[in-house]
Amino acid sequence: MRRTPGAIRILGGVLTLYLLAPFVAGLSRMGDADWRGVDRAALLHAAGVSVASATAATALVAVAGVPLGYVLARGRGWRVAVLGGVVQWPLALPPLASGILLLFLLGYNGVLGGLTHGALTESFAGIVLAEAFVAAPFLIVAARSAFAAVDPALEDVAATLGYGPGAVFRRIGLPVARRAILAGLLLAWLRAFGEFGATMMVAYHPYSLPVFTYVAFGGAGLPAMLPVLAPTLAVAATVLVLGQVVAVPRRRGRAPSRDVLPPVAAGPAATGPGRTLVLDLRQNLEGFTLRVEYRTQARRLAILGASGSGKSMSLRTIAGLERGAGSVVRCDGRDLAALPPEARGIAYVPQGYALPPHLTVAEQVRFAVDSNPALVAHWVAAFGLADLSRRYPHELSPGQRQRVALARALSRPSAGLVLLDEPFSALDAPLRARLRQDVLAVQGGVRATTILVTHDPAEAMLLADELLLLDGGRVIRAGPVDEVFSRPGGEIAARLLGARTIGAGDVLSPTRIDIGGGVALRVAGAPLTPGARVRWAVRPHQVRLDGRGEYPATILHRGAVRDGQRSVRLRLGEAVLDIVADPSCPDIGPCRVMIDPLAFQVWPHDGHGP
Ligand SMILES: Nc1ncnc2c1ncn2[C@@H]1O[C@H](COP(=O)(O)OP(=O)(O)OP(=O)(O)O)[C@@H](O)[C@H]1O
């Protein structure tokens, strides 16, 4: 646990002392209490009125105040901002002024007062209405903050799992924000219970406890007040203790378990053709325009791009979580763009997985509206989740969380598209490697098209048959993985695919490039245009030192041995390459290297540089 700085604790302590001091002072004087003049029956009645009216007022504001808090948390624009300010006005008014305003509404001559023939003043109903007016902002502000703190990804996922807006509120927003809302309800109750000024103006009778206290104080001195204080303090203290029990989060059991992940039990391989997917994704945002057009029958598609290039936006537009007016999303001829997210039949796994914290693993995996028990059982078994079924997300390791999110998404029989948004981000390298195998196993067993968003070329090449390279919201290259890899089409795409520009050359024939120094590379892939000037790249681990290798080269530098490998710098033609080699590789001087023709990436020279 992190330690709190001393100065902060001192400041907090000073205020706590100040807040407690009047209670201590009052309680220490209880011995002087003068009970003789106290009408105990009237005191008890007033206490009953206050408890009942505060409870009724809190219930009243809860019914509308919680939804209002949700609207304020989720809404955008100036209207919502104005609404957020207006509902806090009662906080700014002296309670007596609130009472006067309420009289204009509830009094004999007020709109509501006239309709009810004055039943809303000098009555229990009047007390409830006055208390509701002053207490409501406490609940609304607490509910707004509580809903604002709910991760929007949780609601997005629920929407893609078949829940409409009302169900998302009930199944996600409300339960996740529950504790903070309960704290707000407690505040509202206490404010209503202690309300005096507005109540006195609207309903002097029947006496509530604060009004009774005022009357008792008016008729006698401090000693006569003390008996009146006793029930007030007792009730407030009881409610506060109850509130702490209900509203303070309990620490639930187990520490996150370690990543003990059994291999995924891959089922039978999916057969049949891939789905026909037609995409024309459009977003016009301030400072960013997305336009992605693509048509494919590939089962596995990866969208690769730098940060901010529009990868997640594309996925969210496909899922219907971003509007994207004019967009087309068609899967096997079914027009998804016309449907809300809950009707698109999409299995969406967002970054961070978005597992609602109040649901156990068992509840998570069957959370989708149309989750299929047989599929749930299949994926729970395949991912080895059965022993974790009673755990909550914070009791799971990152790898287990990812498996739960995958199982949840895949347990929908109707899912035609599986969208994976950076599923391995924020994981360490060994875990990434293992979880890629999970996804690979999943891809082999589902007929749905998987669309993976990533900025890792290795991940994209392992988990996709076709690639879509994005830059600034546009597709700069798309097609089968091998084609895109070997002919990225330009410098930016080549870099996205991990190429570090190594050299330039002139195309001699459709499969040969002269890179100077008497070396001509033999490359595979789409035929090149003789005479064209090109750039080329090759990954370090694809260059092998081999005495019978095709190309003559020169070792320029032998680096230290690390992890059983030696870094080596060599010259090939006019290019300088950094590679990794066996520790026993030849010393500085001439050598030969072997490079698979498929390993070369070649793209047109942009005219800048050598
Ligand atoms: N609501 C929004 N309003 C305006 N611009 C937005 C909004 N949401 C996202 N953007 C912008 O859209 C662009 C694409 O965002 P997106 O999240 O798709 O990027 P990304 O490629 O997934 O990046 P990363 O790899 O960092 O997640 C970014 O420039 C982002 O700033």
List keywords for this structure.
20 strands; binds adenosine-5'-triphosphate; 5-stranded antiparallel β-sheet; OB fold (Dihydrolipoamide Acetyltransferase, E2P); 44% helix; 610 residues; 20 helices; alpha+beta; MetI-like fold; 19% strand; 6-stranded mixed β-sheet; 3 domains; Rossmann fold
Concise description?
The chain has 610 residues and is of the alpha+beta class.
How would you describe this protein?
The chain has 610 residues and is of the alpha+beta class. The protein has 3 domains: 26-247, MetI-like fold, CATH 1.10.3720; 277-486, Rossmann fold (3-Layer(aba) Sandwich); 501-604, OB fold (Dihydrolipoamide Acetyltransferase, E2P) (Beta Barrel), CATH 2.40.50.140. 44% of the residues lie in helices and 19% in strands. It has helices at residues 6-28, 40-74, 78-86, 89-92, 95-106, 111-115, 124-148, 152-160, 165-193, 197-202, 209-219, 222-247, 311-319, 361-365, 373-382, 398-410, 429-445, 457-463, 481-486, 491-496, and strands spanning 277-285, 288-296, 300-305, 328-331, 334-335, 346-349, 417-421, 449-454, 466-471, 474-480, 503-509, 512-514, 520-522, 533-537, 543-545, 551-562, 565-572, 575-581, 589-595, 601-604. The chain has a 6-stranded mixed β-sheet with strand order 6-7-8-3-9-10, sandwiched between helices. Helix 15 (373-382) runs antiparallel to helix 16 (398-410). The relative contact order is 0.08. The structure holds adenosine-5'-triphosphate. Adenosine-5'-triphosphate binds at residues 285-286, 288, 305, 307-313, 455.
